[in-house]
Amino acid sequence: MSMDGYRGGWEVESSAVECAVADLMALARKTAEMTDNDEYDVRLGIEWSGEQLLTILTKDGMGYSYDGVSTPLHRYTPVETTVNAAEPEADFHRHVHDFALDCVNQGGISNMLLIRPSARDKPA
After folding, report:
1. How many CB atoms lie within 10 A of CB 86?
2. By the 8 A CB rule, do 22 and 100 touch?
3. Are the CB atoms for 4 and 99 separated by under 8 Å?
4. 35 secondary structure, DSSP code
5. CA 114 to mean position of chain CA atoms
6. Helix/strand/coil (H, E, C) string of 53-115?
């Protein structure tokens, strides 16, 4: 939602995709803690209807929604990965980051807003 109304059904904030990935992966991690299963195949897709092309929005330097780098999509191809949900925290965090980046990158977004790379993956 913006200050002056609601987004169109074809517009998705990249941060919402990141949140969906974080929630999905947290669920897998918690499930792994409670069961003997630690490896999971996860898949994330975006469904919408209507004639408009899907647009994944990001934020500009001032914090406003920005679609200047978005690639309008006729179809969003679901992103899949296999994750060891019981792996060490740093490795799991890298998996979460990479999965989320793959999900938003399909729409032309290359900068993550919420899920930062782990300290050891940041450039020096």
Report:
1. 16
2. yes
3. no
4. S
5. 9
6. CEEEEEECCCCCEECCCCCCECCCCCEEEEEECCCCHHHHHHHHHHHHHHHHHCCCCCCCCCC
